[in-house]
Amino acid sequence: MNNDLKIAQSAVLEDIYTIAEKAGISREFVIPYGNDKAKISLKIKDTVNANPDGKLILVTAINPTKAGEGKSTTTIGLADGLSKIGVNVMACLREPSLGPVFGLKGGAAGGGYAQVVPMESINLHFTGDMHAITTATNLIAAALDNSIYQGNPLNIDPTRVEWKRCLDMNDRTLRTITIGQGSKVNGVEREDHFVITVATEIMAILCLSKDLNDLQERISRCIVAYTYDNQPVTVKDLGVDGAAAVVMKDAVMPNLVQTLEHTPVLVHGGPFANIAHGCNSLIATTTALKLADYVVTEAGFGADLGAEKFLDIKCRLGGLKPNAVVVVATVRALKMHGGVEEKDLSQENIEAMIEGAKNLQKHIESVQAFHIPFIVAINKFASDTPAEVQALFEWCKEHGYPVEESDGWANGGNGTIDLAKHVVSICEEESGYAPIYDVKESIPDKILAVAKTIYGASGVEYSETALEKIRQYEALGWDQVPICMAKTPLSLTDDPKQKGRPEGFTIHVTDFSISRGAGFIVAYTGSILTMPGLPVEPAAVHMGVDDHGNSYGIF
């Protein structure tokens, strides 16, 4: 079978106006970017708001491994499978970051015959949303440093600047830098930091805003620094919230594309789930719910990160009530969680797979804590043996877990028909969705609820820096908001080396940051980083353009 890029390049795409018509989007709301993608005007809300909401389906997974889980592939395959059985369906996905595309993880447009296209464009510059977020963030940073340089009328303490510059690329050398060096005309010298674009508050705001006015209001509330007398300084104080909104006025509109089987997909926003809230935009999701009978979306990494934040942050702030959750696992990944080395994954090992299934069980229990119907999707790999698949099915049935195999990668929608039918069935069950904590609880109590209920931790420890931030936020009245946990995606713990289902461990909170515009507090655990680095052999070294102008090496 061809690789993902060859499959995508061979696809015959339908005109974007045809896809829009299939989604029930009138031509007047379509702003085309070529023939295969488009922005959708926010004015569409005026015509669809009276429509009833469709069913909302979240796709999540176990903790990721090098073996691959295929959450996005399953999301896209499920959407195509639902379309195959005659369901009016749309998918809502996040936009990929260039950091992972050129780094280690790769793109985020699915795989095999379960992809969104144009795959190259989606994984690279797309419609420019990432660039707009980068520009808006750095515009605010420039205005802040200019204010300090121009006589510092806001009395900003240069050692207490909170707003960080950004770049949509993995570049560890920018984590901590010194700016303003040399002549005084270069500005005030101080230590500064870069984060990756998808970890910025502007990205979080894009994904949680209702419209452009709400986006500007949220940007205006962002805390950029503190004064010498400990008072917070906001973007509004700098006077550039309007300018940032101007930069973002096109980016706030969701992007319409299609799957290989021409199912409509809204791809919009892309915060990382390990250092942000990991979900596509509320605008895209709520628009799709007014257009389709079923909406399939995904949240980053495992249920301990993306799903928890989808259910505790996005659904809470957006007034959403999910109808079903699909928990994705693979035989290969479960074997890794059971102790098998990557080089030995092709060998049948039922015992290790069942041991690794403890990780899957914890994620299922986390979903159950939100009282939402769920199903396990076993994402099929060619190396899976019939005995392994049968053993995993039996394990699920012994525990009372509904389960289906998903083969979207090899067979597109035809490979997910059974899963699609089962999902439709569980969507008819009553969803008792409720967040696992009340925002009025204390910061430590909210974190303990996540640590114990979702991670399975026995307790939480705080650094002195973190404890001081808690006292500061409480004094300022900033504590009654959701918590966004920044944690390694590779483990239920804050130690990426701990696979499977560890018990009796402690979560270590090292620091906090306030995202007043987005509406949550970020809690940093372990050694989590907000600017990734490149691996020894980045994916970028295998990419290029051939003599015919075709890209290669993108995956």
Describe this structure in words.
- There is one protein chain.
- The chain is of the alpha/beta class and 555 residues long.
- It folds into three domains: 4-127 and 251-426, P-loop containing nucleotide triphosphate hydrolases (Rossmann fold), CATH 3.40.50.300; 129-248, 2-Layer Sandwich (Domain 2, N(10)-formyltetrahydrofolate synthetase); 443-525, Formyltetrahydrofolate synthetase, domain 3 (Roll).
- 36% of the residues lie in helices and 19% in strands.
- The protein contains 20 helices and 25 strands.
- The strands form six sheets. Strands 1, 2, 3, 4, 5, 6, 14, 15, 16, 17, 18 and 19 form a twelve-stranded mixed beta sheet that branches.
- Helix 7 (129-149) crosses helix 8, helix 9 (212-221) crosses helix 11 and helix 14 (331-337) packs across helix 15.
- The model has no long low-confidence stretch (mean pLDDT 95).
State the distance separating the first and last CA atoms. 14 Å
Helix content: 25-40%
Q: What is the total number of structural domains?
A: 3
Radius of gyration: 23 Å
Task: Briefly note the CATH topology name of the largest domain.
Answer: Rossmann fold
Short description:
This protein has 555 residues and is an alpha/beta fold. It has 3 domains: 4-127 and 251-426, P-loop containing nucleotide triphosphate hydrolases (Rossmann fold, 3-Layer(aba) Sandwich), CATH 3.40.50; 129-248, Domain 2, N(10)-formyltetrahydrofolate synthetase; 443-525, Formyltetrahydrofolate synthetase, domain 3, CATH 3.10.410.10. Strands 1, 2, 3, 4, 5, 6, 14, 15, 16, 17, 18 and 19 form a 12-stranded mixed β-sheet that branches.
